[in-house]
Design brief:
- With 308 residues, the protein is of the alpha/beta class.
- The protein contains twelve helices and six strands.
- Strands 1-2-3-4-6-5 form a six-stranded mixed sheet, with helices on both faces.
């Protein structure tokens, strides 16, 4: 996730202080671990995690450089946050587990969430480094948020930087009702409401996956290289795919809708279906009772006629 919150200045000031002094005295000490072209700040309980990041950084860096064909030349600073309350002061959503501030070469990770959600630290780290690499080579004003997040998710094996419900796709629900968020609305930022935020992430990943499905990774990489040269995304997409971005977006939406299955449809109408079935069962039971009563009444009338 890219981070442009109102607390960004405070966060950077805090980070600069930590880096300058090596450790900060306060509610627990924050330590600085420096390695080959990377800085990691952490509280004492997270020292093993910091050492793990320090160890895997060269390999992860090499992986993303190979994917994009670009060098990551900046020295990233990684801040491991122990208290979720502190992280929430900086994050834009309670669903956020990590974010990047490309202008500062900074990645912040809420490691406390790693214990309660099945997140992969390595791929989360890789995802945030992708943001730093993309913004190092493409001017931020040219890089739409949906492309930034979609590409980062693709490059980090589908891992995002927010909590997602893996069992229930909001993208399928949006396709079912024809309520996609237009990509034009996801250029400068993502919605703040949790459901719309999740949908924005799902759409970004799905659209990039659709582009890759059309022409492999080379098509998307050509778009990124065009933007590195200063082209806007619409021009870069048209040059790479010979189709306008708007037309590709319409085709992608139709493709998502076509792939909707009856199972998916039923899953999103489960409660309505169960309610309707329950109503039918109740109606059936009522009819059976009425029929039984009428039969009993006829039998009683018949017996009364016999007695007469």
């Amino acid at each position: 996730m890219l981070h442009t919150p109102r607390h960004a200045a405070l966060l950077f000031s805090f980070l600069a202080t930590l880096i300058f002094f090596g450790k900060a005295i306060g509610a627990g000490e924050t330590y600085l671990l420096q390695g080959e072209a990377i800085r990691i700040l952490f509280k004492k309980p997270h020292e093993p995690v910091a050492k793990e990041l320090l160890q895997i950084y060269p390999e992860v860096k090499k992986e993303i450089e190979k994917i994009f064909g670009w060098d990551l030349t900046l020295t990233p600073s990684i801040l491991l946050v122990k208290e979720s309350s502190q992280f929430r002061e900086w994050a834009t959503s309670p669903l956020t587990i990590a974010f990047a501030v490309p202008q500062r070469g900074l990645v912040v990770i809420d490691y406390s969430k790693m214990k309660t959600h099945p997140f992969n630290l390595r791929n989360t780290f890789k995802h945030e480094l992708c943001h730093l690499l993309l913004h190092q080579h493409i001017r931020s004003e040219l890089l739409p948020r949906w492309l930034d997040e979609g590409v980062a998710q693709w490059a980090s094996d589908g891992v995002g930087d927010i909590v997602l419900d893996q069992k229930r796709s909001l993208l399928h629900k949006a396709a079912l009702h024809g309520r996609f968020i237009p990509l034009d609305s996801l250029v400068r930022g993502f919605p703040e409401r949790d459901q719309n935020l999740i949908l924005a992430y799902e759409e970004s990943k799905s659209f990039v996956d659709y582009l890759i499905g059309m022409s492999g990774t080379q098509g998307v990489l050509k778009v990124l290289r065009g933007m590195e040269q200063g082209k806007e995304v619409k021009a870069a997409v048209l040059e790479s795919y010979a189709v306008s971005l708007a037309a590709l977006e319409r085709e992608w939406q139709r493709d998502v809708t076509r792939r909707m299955t009856w199972f998916t449809y039923l899953s999103y109408h489960l409660y309505e279906i169960l309610f309707a079935v329950a109503a039918l069962i109740t109606l059936y039971g009522f009819i059976r009772v009425m029929v039984k009563k009428r039969r009993q009444m006829k039998e009683e009338d018949f017996e009364a006629d016999l007695e007469v």
